[in-house]
Design brief:
Number of helices: 12
CATH architecture of the largest domain: Alpha-Beta Complex
Strand content: 25-35%
Structural class: alpha/beta
CATH class of the largest domain: Alpha Beta
CATH superfamily of the largest domain: Medium-chain alcohol dehydrogenases, catalytic domain
Distance between the termini: 23 Å
Bound molecules: NADP nicotinamide-adenine-dinucleotide phosphate
Length: 341
């Protein structure tokens, strides 16, 4: 089987395609034949090593995958060979086969396209948690989404639209049509002042900020009383656009804003530990989203697919800000199972 491996710390250039034996599932594990895996900016973050606790190379990137149960390890029950499953694994998605503890797998519908299903497994579940459980935003609420034309940003806008939440979205000009098509109000962060525009309209109840560092202070200024700022990433640091001091300064300010009596809250959020602390919730949320997808209440924006072996090219595409929506890796198993797609 083939697998993409980050052989050292760095960008897409450190990825290599390796061929190796198909792994055998251990007790309690399920082997999955991967159909699709998500390409996420989080992969670049792990590979860059800027985040404390990043995996040590060599490792395979890949937060999430959709595939078919291929073999059951000893003691596994409740799964059948050939059944479609999703896994949310943080690393290891970029491979043709992989083995996971059965509790990490969620059975999903056989009737939906796996390139669309993979849009849900990281981005939509994160958007779902941020809007419903962290921000507690309901119909009539208002949010500000940065990076609104990317994978995560389009998921936030799409969910907001279905929930009747008004969304502002910062994005480069080339992505404004997409932001508008998802019901968002686009702001060109390169030539416009998002703080001024959002406050002119009365502020928002939730800001999702993936930039980090000094950007957080500007996002905080967009909140109206009762609002929440969520810092989800250090995008600027991963791209070398801000230094370690600025990143740490941003995080310290988050703590300060949270304890300061200002009727607003601020927090750091990572979806992986969130679901680890709430066992069973990931499957519930994913299945709720699968239902919305089956009912066509949400419409994930798939930008493009790359074959698995072009994982480095896919990550380069993402790093260069070209993605309009989600980028997905597909395996040969996907192409032979869904020849028309
Ligand atoms: N904490 C969590 O649990 C969690 C979960 C999922 C994702 N994330 C984070 O969410 C972020 C997005 O991930 P993704 O996979 O969706 O990546 P992505 O598709 O590459 O989206 C990032 C977007 O940011 C835009 N951008 C760049 N500079 C910007 C700026 N100064 N202001 C506003 N937008 C800017 C980029 O395009 P344009 O410049 O062309 O607009 C791009 O569309 C990543 O930082 C990731 O780590 C966090």
């Amino acid at each position: 089987m083939r697998r993409i491996v980050a052989v050292e710390t760095g960008g897409p250039e450190v990825l290599q395609l390796v061929e190796e034996e198909i792994p055998e599932p251990g007790p309690g594990e399920v082997r999955v034949k991967v159909l699709t895996s998500g390409v996420a900016f989080g992969d670049l973050l792990w590979m860059s090593g800027v985040v404390p606790g990043s995996p040590k190379p060599p490792f395979s990137p890949g937060y999430d995958l959709v595939g078919l149960v291929d073999k059951l390890g000893e003691g596994v029950n409740g799964f059948e060979v050939g059944q479609r499953v999703a896994a949310f694994v943080k690393t290891g998605g970029y491979a043709e086969y992989s083995c996971w503890p059965q509790e990490e797998l969620t059975p999903i519908s056989d009737d939906l396209d796996p390139t669309t299903q993979i849009c849900l497994t990281l981005n939509y579940v994160t958007a779902y948690v941020l809007i419903n459980r962290i921000g507690k935003i309901t119909s009539g609420g208002r949010i500000l989404v940065h990076g609104a034309g990317g994978g995560m940003g389009t998921a936030m806008l799409d969910l907001a639209r279905t929930m009747d939440i008004q969304a502002f979205g910062t994005a480069s000009l080339a992505k404004h049509e997409l932001v508008e098509s998802l019901g968002g109000i686009p702001i060109d962060y390169r030539s416009e002042d998002f703080v001024e525009i959002v406050n002119r309209e009365g502020g928002v109840d939730l800001v999702v900020d993936h930039m980090g560092g000094s950007h957080l202070a500007r996002s905080f200024q967009c909140l109206r009383p009762g609002g929440t700022l969520v810092s989800t990433s250090s995008y600027a640091a991963a791209l070398g656009q801000s230094g370690a001091l600025e990143t740490v300064g941003g995080l310290l300010r988050l703590q300060l804003w949270n304890v300061w009596p200002n009727q607003r809250s601020a927090l750091l959020f990572d979806v992986v530990p969130f679901y680890k602390k709430n066992p069973g919730m990931y499957s519930l949320d994913l299945l709720a989203l699968q239902e919305l997808l089956a009912e066509e209440k949400i419409n994930p924006v798939l930008d493009t697919t790359f074959p698995l072996e072009e994982g480095a090219k896919a990550l380069e595409y993402l790093r260069d800000g070209k993605a309009k929506g989600k980028v997905v890796l597909v395996t040969e198993a996907y192409s032979s199972t869904f020849p028309g797609l």
